[in-house]
Description:
Layout: E1 2-9, H1 10-13, E2 24-28, E3 44-45, H2 46-58, E4 62-66, E5 75-76, H3 83-89, H4 92-99, E6 114-117, H5 131-142, E7 146-150, E8 173-174, H6 196-202, E9 206-207, E10 216-219, E11 222-225, H7 231-244, H8 251-274, H9 277-283, E12 284-294, E13 297-302, H10 303-308, E14 319-328, E15 331-339, E16 344-355, E17 358-370, H11 375-381, E18 391-394, E19 400-406, E20 409-414, E21 420-422, E22 424-427, E23 430-433, E24 444-449, E25 452-457, E26 460-468, E27 471-479, E28 485-493, E29 499-504, H12 518-527, E30 532-536, H13 554-570, E31 578-584, H14 587-598, E32 604-608, H15 615-630, H16 635-653, H17 658-668, H18 693-696, H19 704-709, E33 714-719, H20 726-735, E34 742-747, H21 773-785
InterPro entries: AB_hydrolase_Est10 (IPR053145), AB_hydrolase_fold (IPR029058), Class_I_gatase-like (IPR029062), DJ-1/PfpI (IPR002818), FrzH/put_lumazine-bd (IPR039437), Hydrolase_4 (IPR022742), NTF2-like_dom_sf (IPR032710)
Protein name: Alpha/beta hydrolase
Pfam family, one: Hydrolase_4
Amino acid sequence: MNKIILLILIFFVSHSTLVYSQKKILFVTSNQHFYGNTKINTANHFGEIVIPYDLFNKAGIEVDFVSPKGGAIPIGYIATSNATHKKYLYDGSFMNKLANTMHPSVVVPEHYSAIFYSGGGAAMFGVAEDTSIQTIARAIYNRNGIISTLCHGTAGIAYLKDEKGNSLYSGRKITGFPDSQEDRNEAYYKTFPFAMDKAINDNKGNFVFSEKENFYVVDGRFITGQDPTASVSVANEVIKQINNQNISSNTAQYKSDLEQVRETLLDYIEGTANGQPQRLRKAFHPKFNLYTVAKDTLWTRSGEQYIANINEGERSNRLGRIIDIDIEKDAATAKVEIIASDTRLLTDYFLLLKYEGSWKIVHKSYSWREVPKSPSIQAEINGEYFDPFMGDYVTPNNEIIVIGRSKPKLYAFNEKNYEFRGLNKVNDNTWTAGKTIVSTDVVQTYKFKQNKIEIYENDKLITTAIKKEFYTNEKVTYTNANGVKLGGTLFIPEKPNGKAVVLVHGAGAENRNGYASNLRLLADQIAREGVTVLAYDKQGIGVSEGRSYETLGYPDLAQDALAGVDYLRSRKDLSCKKIGLVGVWQGGWVNAKAIDHSGDKIDFVVNMTSSQITLRQLDIDGTKASMKCKGSYTETQIANVLKQRSYFLDYMDNPSLAKQLDDYTKSIEQDTLLKEWLFPKSNEVDLKNRNQWYSTLELNYDPLPTWKNFNKPVYMQFNEFEDYPLSYERKARVDSLKKKNIHTELIKNAQHGGFETTDKCNDSFYLLTNYHKDYFSKMKEWLKSQ
């Protein structure tokens, strides 16, 4: 089974896209402490682990460790005079990996580009015969992955076969520590379960060796080394192939399934917590049931009975964590923890099935227990607990580190090198940062102490940063034109320049801090320029009341943005002479709608990450770009998907076209590779309860005529690799208006959201590391000139 263990705060997961880096390698080690049944100690060869590990680490390749039994492994052959040995021997994080190797049952082969069998006498025992490890190696190899071994580690592939029982390396040259170089008179040798070279030859391989040092063999995707002297060469050959390999895209469907399962669980968790019955209907299969036992009686409830207890808009103080997702083909199980109060912890167990292309919850059971009242639990329920951590911190070198928040997760932005990191919580005051925006690695540790941060690397303090107030924050509430209460935060600069802006969200369940704290960072950047900023929670989120965000169209969202403008204008103490809108992502359409409604109220507009086309066209463009990036679809398959999506959007405009949609969908849905890209058939769409983006938002709304008729200052920023190369076309579309009041900016080597990359297909927080240097600066330059 493909098993993934997740322990992630749900409020962060709901906004992230899970994409696994293909530059990852699995080290196979042994749990054997003694030679056979003797009392003669044996171990894994420390040098054959740390020398390749060091090279892989420097090449940016992540390494995981597995052993037949999981847990701690014995190490030996340690040379403390060797700098690399010494470096890792005293590296607590690395040694912890060896003390906690994975069990084969939790390894997901699709995550790895290569598998590496390290040596040492222990490698002769327990590895070769482990069928789970054989299955992992075969799966990696079948995905165009690499199998590599070193010295006695080659014993691990002695019995390696394909699915039909044939040798996986038939006819290939394989090397390892040859039997002829063993001391056959020693007791250790007599415990060996087999002679390595004979076992390889018996399995149709061609075992070769040499009397020279640094002997290694590359035969296709098998890279093997004879002894420790070949450690560097084997590692470098693996790195070379990983950098050049074309990993099979067989994981695309699996990753999509994982994302869909996670989204279904989110619909359940957030739908229950936020009073959103429609999200629960989306999550549950029509025949969903809930089982629980009370007083030795089995109680059953249907999905509708469960939903009947959820009142629209009535929120409860709950926080959910996805603990475990386990997927096998069209079935999945999941475990979720719900903090329902200060002291009550519920554990939900789910069965999900893939039903007509979508993952649905068909069964739930649960248990609960009382836990001691804890400030940490209260902190997770109420993300505002961490508000005091947010703000600007200045190092002795005058570098500014900005701390932001999205729900209970903190983010750190370094203005000098533009690095951006999601911080992982260790405890309330200690957080860690990894190699990328979202990473479980520990590269730095942030310790919050009163009004400062101490930043550590490898337990060594590298800098401190003292909190400095460039503006004051004021939490406010106000109402929109329909009397709905909205909650937000004002950023009031030390020296206001008379300008003010309302920040307008992107899509999704966003509060005043935005997705991955993007609105918080924007507010910070703009307020430090002397501009007053208002950031608010969407309706149904945070402090704001009203409808679920999923049911809000562009006019509704625009009314809320205009309510912010009205509020700023009503605050005479702020002396706002010019008030504008700053929108991110979906905010570009919302800003245009606000102008359509009350353009006279708006003095200027900033659109970050602009599209400036219809939502319909954006969907078609984005789908095409994403499928091309997968690299596994033919032009015909892509064309079929785009046609089906186009027919679906036609149907949403005109339900009489249902037959056209359904007939075409049936004609191509047998191609299982396309299922994740297809829209539902007409009978799967609820046209009465419009709570999906394609049923709520105006698919054919084109903002270009609005910009043509708007004569006040406008700044539009485009990112080069957003649906590349269409960003150029979208910018040119606006430029064709030849409006002197509109300034367009194309940020090269930037992805969606302004993150730097040189790869048009890289838009994953698991790979990206920093904002583009021009993302904030170009906008601030323009804003200063107005």
